[in-house]
Design brief:
The chain is built from 14 helices and eight strands. It is an alpha+beta fold. 41% of the residues lie in helices and 12% in strands. The radius of gyration is 24 Å and the shape is globular. The protein binds iron/sulfur cluster. The site of iron/sulfur cluster has 14 residues, from helix 9 and helix 12. Iron/sulfur cluster (SF4) binds next to helix 9 and helix 12.
Length: 365
Amino acid sequence: MPPSMVPSDAAARLLAWYDRHARRLPWRTPPGGPAPDPYRVWLSEVMLQQTTVAAVIPYFERFLARWPTVDSLAAAPLDDVLVEWAGLGYYARARNLHKCARAVAEQHGGRFPDSEDALRALPGIGAYTAAAVAAIAFGRRATVVDGNVERVMARLFAVIDPLPGSKAELKRLADTLTPADRCGDYAQAVMDLGATICTPRSPSCLACPWQAGCRARLEGIAESLPRKERKADKPVRRGVAFWLRDDSGRVLLRRRPEDGLLGGMTEVPSTPWREGPPWLPDDALAHAPLPGIGWQPLPGVVRHTFTHFHLELAVVAGLTPGAGPQASADGRWVALPALGGEALPTVMRKVVTAAVAGVATRRGP
Ligand code: SF4
């Protein structure tokens, strides 16, 4: 950093900016105000991982209205939590959220511990969340580093080594600026700077409280940072989803295994999802939830992208006479209007939408 800005100056400048420009978010208290409830901080930080603020706000408010304390969340059935979480993605987080609430309720008397180390010992709390809760809810000096903060540090110090290899260095640099006072406000201020001023494209350097000391700005390379190693292309997996209805219009759903992708969530039954060419009809039908159904392909393909792969699902529709029989221990029939109350992950909501539209535009099942 140029001599025009020493670390204590940097923190003071940023905090002065934050006092005027802090985003008002439902889990925050105003700058300089009392520390927010650790439960709200933790809940928001878990929800915000991999998701935008705008997407999180309605979920956060619904969770708070239904479970206003960590004890009430701990007492809730996991299925209810998964239903409320449906659509936020990364469902292992919802399961860990519930586990963590139980651990806080049972092992800590319903109060979150106040140190990074003790927080990290809780289920689903990694380095980032532990630092965020320790700093924001308890005022501990902790260096909170997310993608926004990495970008700001890479630019401020003109770090040209690419991510993810430069992560440790960016954290070290961020730590050199973290002040001993107002740690919670400072952590949120850096995040806000990255989210609103030092944005990935076209950073608003003229509005930035750190412009005088920013090396990347002075060197004219801000927009090109942080550099990133090229990621390998994601593979494509394919599967076939079975949209099976009975005479009364109910649909067959099942629960996914507890372990693995979308663990414990509800799904439209499907073949395994595998890389390679589209499924041949006979191969796919070997995985159908009931034998002897006249399956009809529906138009189009449902596409969804997960962290490590793209998914393409063909959808076939079938009708079973009478009230549908029990297909398997984890299968159950659900009336169409009740699907909104199911813990259907986003990919399965896409399947439902495609199936309903596909069936409506054709005769037969
Ligand atoms: Fe980011 Fe520009 Fe501020 Fe540097 S001066 S930290 S590039 S917004």
